[in-house]
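Please, structure for the following, as tokens.
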Amino acid sequence: MPNRNFSSSRPTDPVRGDFRQRYDEIESRREELIARLNSLDQGTRAHPGYKRALKLLNETFRKSKLAQRLAVLQAASWLIDILERLTLTL
């Protein structure tokens, strides 16, 4: 294709945004979840779920592809919700 124009880039989807914007949004969501996790008291930090949530937000998150990271964050958010409820009942 000799007449192909390589200088024009594909238009970004206005709903999804470009790669950098999605990456930054996911990374900021991860930071929010880590802050929520760190705000838990010492009793809850002894729970095995705390270590699992930490692993989800660090190791598993970093090993995942960008498309899978949102699901990892959703799982971590669910686990943190459970830990927060556990704190209220103890």
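The mean pLDDT is 87. The helical segments are 19-38, 42-45, 48-63, 66-89.
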